[in-house]
Amino acid sequence: MATSPRPARRPHRRGGGASGLAGEAAAMRAGEDLCDHCMGRAFMVRAGASDAGILGRRLRREGGYAEPARCAVCRGLFARLGEHCDEMVRLAGATEFATFLVGATLRPSVLDADDSMRSRHGLRGTPGIKSDVTRTLSRMFARRTRARAEASSPDMTLKVDLRDGAVSIETRPVHVAARYTKESRGLPQRQGRCESCGGRGCVACGRRGISGTCSVEGRLAEFLCGAFGARQARFTWCGTEERGGTVSGRGRPFFARLSCPSRREARLPRRADLGGVTVIGARAMRSPPGAAPRFVLTASLSVRAEEDIGDEALGRLRALRGGVTDYGSRMQRRAIHSASVRRSSPREFALTLRVDGGFPIRRFVEGPDVSPNVSDTLEVRCSCERADFADVDIRPAGRGGARSG
After folding, report:
1. What percent of the chain is modeled with pLDDT above 90?
2. What is the domain partition of the chain in residue ranges?
3. Is residue 114 pLDDT above 90, yes or no?
4. Is this model's pTM higher than 0.85 or not?
5. What is the CATH number of domain 174-284?
6. Which of 188, 331, 336, 351 is deepest in the core (most CB within 10 A)?
7. Do 174-284 and 294-403 agree at the fold level?
């Protein structure tokens, strides 16, 4: 059976530009009091335009109608964006940034009016007023700061609340890698959280979230936050030491996440004495660290036994070299890469170990849930009087060592 030929498909038209849409805009204007921005937004997809305000002005001039004193949709919002941009530029003036992102909060009544207008005129696919506001603010801010709008990982995010005119900024965190040595005994590694805010940051703690600087964490936070103009520092440590222990040699690596920095780069000294703590080789990282790194370290232990220890018994400790310890309910394993012992007195000796990160130092000396351990090997109860650390080295993935534990 013969079939009739299909009619030729009419080519899709982009609306003929502003000239072809001026008549439709004039008819729409007769029933809607719309400003240039809101009128241009209604036709910008069909016109292939990128700026609703410019398109709206062209349509108004070609249609021969005047812009209303008050827009029924935005209610004068676009006319006030210049003032909001002034505040954005002022707040961002003390911050280093090359890229930015703008977010906005509008009154629900404005969003509802925009939805109703687009529904009445069947404007499917037309950008909403919130998108147009953020696009316009971004264009204005970029023109004044010469920065670039970027949605993915911007240096700075500006949030504009158009309900009350409030503007806030947040900057992308800076990540720092460094090492530290600790010369002062009695200085803890961790600092307690601020009692007033629980670590969130408040006036009482200077927005730092910690209770002071009487620790390794407190002094490193003060140094790094000052260098980058940051609000808070959060640390990832490659192991821990006790209050009475020291860290020497190449030091202990750590990573710091600095929130809300005003500077993205800082000239950091190769070494900086922070008073009992020395930070070494601090540098900003291109990207944050991944999973907690594996590492090995040297531990120097001062051990005291309850009875005199003979030379033969001490010699048994050297045999632990290359052994593996199992401990705890999870049966975790940590390697002993080397072991050496030196007598100090009939009941005291120094034990130097090269071990995986997370090795249970005190329990290895005292037992009983670590096997093998020093007390069982010597067949006499021992205690660890002091533990000092040195030369903490990060191991590449897949080459032994253990994660921080």
Report:
1. 64
2. 17-63, 78-169, 174-284, 294-403
3. yes
4. no
5. 3.30.70.2510
6. 351
7. yes
